[in-house]
């Protein structure tokens, strides 16, 4: 996608940027010897904005900061935009915007495409590597965060104009499949692919159990271990029977994962599958290239990459293991083939690996190797986007009572059931609320995850996450239904806005908050931190509540006030729905 495709879609310049321009002009007038001064404009609760640019400048030029602040305030000349500019404190300048400029800004955003948000990432190709569950294992709570965060970042990047390539790096290759296939061949009675036609996740639950049985035999019985090893060789050598069973394992597992993606409303499909096996045929070539370049070296029969700055607690180097002494390639070799492919063939400008924090060293080593090999160079960027652990009610990594892994589908169902109960209280008995319960339950799970600082651990508390009040997905969805309901009742009662009409404090606060939407999206993307968008939307819902409590909309004191408030409600609804959409959360009109 080229930048040219978007030339007709002009973004709306945020008010803060217009203020910055005016402040820069004033700084230059007040201090002609300055070059390119920084305006340092922030939102403030004392005025609309506060400009702090005079402070560092006064210091640099040996001027009294307060006096310079006063000179800047006096020099501000933007009568349509800025109503008052006053110096305060040691040299800040408090700036209030004219009501007319704010109302016009609301109108401009409503008229514009995409709420007037620009496309700063147009022309960029971003690979997002996320989810990556493992074949023959159930998706568990550990896969929740990568799936939800990866999905949100992919949506965000697309909304900012990037071309996004989703890559589901399925764990579908490796010696463990020799073990499992051998076990299945010795237990023909295990009807694993026919367990349940209706529920694909049931099939993989059976596989998960068989996998653990196979592992136990593998560990206990040396003769089986030998047979399993031979099976790996057969599988990798292309033995037809082994390949067929392996293909079945992948299909059955992928169907189960798809069921979860669909239930979660996550945009991953079969087309995004790029599992470890995809790179199998490239491994010889990739490793040969690294050996030739002197990057990979032999060590005790294995092939490794060593790093000066990576050592263990004992000071011994911790290498990246490409090929084991028995000749088998591992996880690292696959990731090297993947990164070479993503840059060389998929033409990625940026690759985001949404994988838990425990794999930080692995990615550090993979990226360093790719850099040495010259695959990762120039402006191309590979980023590990780590995240913390989901904790159980006891504040420890979430496990079942017996210490097993917590099934993801079970957690989702639990949240949906609890959301359903909360919603049912607001509806007459007997109404079918299944769809709404799913939308709110899943929204609750996603919001609880995304609204936490990504790198921190959090406690999975299904009661708290479906609460109607507080910082929850349900609260935001509910705010959206209130906005939608006002607009529904207003019906055709919408006339053009009246920018000359007065503006209340709450109207102003809401309008200025809405004007910052695009900046928050860009910031959330730059930091890869969806919680910034969550915080913004929560503040939006609260600003709306404050506005609505103080300013009647349908029963406004004048037609002009009503039209302006309806416009504000419309912009708030569209912004909230858009933002929730980027988080992968539904925005129902009624609940
Ligand atoms: N399958 C891996 C796991 O469960 C995650 C894959 C992450 N992506 C990657 N390119 N290594 O830990």
UniProtKB/TrEMBL annotation:
It holds the Pfam family DALR_1. Residues 476-591 form the DALR anticodon binding domain. Keywords: Aminoacyl-tRNA synthetase, ATP-binding, Cytoplasm, Ligase, Nucleotide-binding, Protein biosynthesis. Its EC number is 6.1.1.19. Its main location: cytoplasm. Residues 17-97 form the Arginyl tRNA synthetase N-terminal domain. A motif ('HIGH' region) lies at residues 133-143. It is found in: Cytoplasm. Transmembrane segments: none annotated. It catalyses: tRNA(Arg) + L-arginine + ATP = L-arginyl-tRNA(Arg) + AMP + diphosphate. GO terms for cellular component: cytoplasm. One of its GO terms (biological process) is arginyl-tRNA aminoacylation. The keyword Thylakoid does not apply. Monomer. Belongs to the class-I aminoacyl-tRNA synthetase family. This is Arginine--tRNA ligase.
